[in-house]
Amino acid sequence: MASKILLSFGRFTGLGLLAAALVVGLDQASKLWLLYGFALPDKAPLHVLPGLDLVVVWNTGISYGLFPQTGPFGQWALLGLKVIAVLLLGIWLTRVDRRAGALALGLIIGGAIGNAIDRATFGAVFDFVLLYVATATWRFNWYVFNIADVAIVAGVVLLLWETLVAPDAAKAP
User: What's the Cα-to-Cα distance from 25 to each of 6, 84, 107, rounded to whole Å?
Assistant: First the structure.
């Protein structure tokens, strides 16, 4: 039974796997280039545009830096949770029958894998994009993120759109 579940791929599984692979490749290439090719740690913070800086932040927690883990047990526990999430999302991907759903799951899976690679390699996730709004007397910093995070958010938004808004959505008004 378990082998049947793992070996049965849906019509759009390949699209989701391709999206995941592209996200992992782009995410890891950008991180490695910024860390070692461009040497961002020596240049940060780097002002790119008004409201956009490149910085170096090592996130030892999960989204938005929640539940930071400094010890090896906590880091491996977070990595284990990511592996479980990717496996469950992968099973879901094999059952998706719509292109948007497969693409969304692929984006989420690729982002999770990209960040998991960081956690396994560095013990933390490398985040580098800082968006902010600044005036003469006030500044608001958005959280610091990376390409994997963008893919995860885009995947979640696409899943919500497909479920709630798309013309043939299951919950469309």
Answer: 24, 21, 12
